[in-house]
Amino acid sequence: MGLVSIKDYAKNKGVTHQSVYQMMKTHEEELKDYIVKQGRTRYLTEEAIEILEKYSNVQVVIERAEFHEEIERLKEENRNLLIKVAAQADKIAELSEWKSDHAVMIAEANQNKLLLEEKTKQFDELKADNRQLTDELAITKQELEHERNKGFFAKLFGGK
To answer: Which residues on neighbouring strands pair with residue 44, listed in sequence order?
Structure first.
């Protein structure tokens, strides 16, 4: 088989080259004599590939177990989030009902405000009318008093 670059090995195995480097680091002591460096590229010998193959099956089992644990953790987290979402939905429903109730009260308050403004305007108009009538009454009383104070002949002949 010869030498295989780490990039090619990862590609053939369907994994990332980072995962191959991680496995190499984990088993560094065993692999140190079977990795050849030419320039900037590192190559695996047949012995290195056998060692990696031996541990890759173990790693797949471990990754599957970790994957299963992660799935269970995510399921639990999902259940907790669903509970929280349901609680928030209940709060939203309560707030919506509260808003509806208060919207009616606000509408009634606005209606009462408009009614009060209308009644205040009517009151001010009546007050002005009352002032005018009071002034007219005072003038009429003065005229009446003046007529009472006229003498007999002035009343008879229309004098002052």
So the answer is: 4, 35
Q: Can you tell me the mean pLDDT for 119-133?
A: 94
pLDDT of residue 64: 61
* Contact between 49 and 4 (Cβ < 8 Å): yes
Predicted TM-score (pTM) above 0.85: no
Which residue shows structure tokens 């259940």? 79
User: Which residues are bridge partners to 96 per DSSP?
Assistant: none
- Closest-CA residue to 34 (of 20, 22, 50, 23): 50
Q: How confident is the model at residue 61 (pLDDT cuts 50, 70, 90)?
A: very low
Give one DSSP letter per residue of 67-135, joined into a string. HHHHHHHHHHHHHHHHHHHHHHHHHHHHHHHHHHHHHHHHHHHHHHHHHHHHHHHHHHHHHHHHHHHHH
Question: Three-state SS for 10?
Answer: helix
* 57 pLDDT above the threshold of 60: yes
